[in-house]
Amino acid sequence: MNPLRRARRLAPGARVAVVALSGPVPEERLQAGLDILRGWDLEPVIAPHVLDTHGELDYLAGADADRAADLQRAWCDPDVDAVLCARGGYGVQRMVDLLDWETMRAAEPKVFVGYSDITALHEAFATRLGVSTLHGPMVAAADFLKHARAQDHLRATLFDPESVQVITAVDGAGALVPGTARGVTLGGCLCLLAADLGTPHARPSARGGLLCLEDVGEEAYRIDRYLTQLLRGDWLTGVSGILLGSWAECEPVRDLLADRLGGLGVPVAEEFGFGHGDGALTIPLGVPGLLDAEAGTLTLDAPALL
Fold first, then answer.
1. Distances from the Cα of 159 to the Cαs of 23, 82, 155, 302, in angstroms?
2. In the annotation, is 240 catalytic?
3. Which of 51, 67, 109, 124 has the most CB atoms less than 10 A away?
4. What are the tens digits of pLDDT across the range 36-62?
5. Would residue 54 show up in a list of annotated catalytic residues for this protein?
6. Catalytic choice (22, 116, 132, 240)
7. Where do the H-state alpha helices sit in 139-181?
């Protein structure tokens, strides 16, 4: 697995597009998130359909084609320095194949931030564009608005990525499986990674990668099913190491994770503080680094952004 092309870091005055690619966005939360961005001396540019709702399917932020058009327009706009997702939910898989990937490939890489349902786009950006992305907080997500740690870590990653080149697990974290491993970061929300298997342009495997896994609101048997699907699909063969993030609102899963992942014979680090949990950290995807599971550290070989 090769490192991906990195985008340039942000500077004061940078223009950042905010897009809604999944579920509907509450306007009051959007405005609160925009205020935070403005406080960082960024200039938010709101995509045309951010506050849309689908006429028939109320779990979607507008029509698939409109959500895709917002993303493509923002990514290809040379005056936009970053694309930040407003929230997750569901909907990316419905619009990802509506994007003109050839046109997007011709654009210069830029910062792209999101998590949860946005995992499908992290994977698509990696396989179709060869561009690294940031698995991090979203502008109108409640956890970002309420938690200074999430805000501070994302801000540092965007403006001063050298300062967060070593990412440390939350207090009290340990190793599910001890050891150290080198690889290129990838991953995100477990259920989305499992759903991507068998789709056009999907990553063939996690071989050579440091795989980041998290999820939210899942019963143990469903997490078992997702992991078993990845194992049966030979997708986890050759993975270098695994970082486990939050399992917010999930049933207890430690024994399950040990059962499904322990047999891979690679280091597995717990509670790395990314995902749906409070104060989520930002994890660069597509960047090489060293995982020390016992120390609870991920040391990137290079800053997340140029």
1. 28, 12, 6, 15
2. no
3. 67
4. 999 999 999 999 999 999 999 999 999
5. no
6. 116
7. 142-146, 148-159
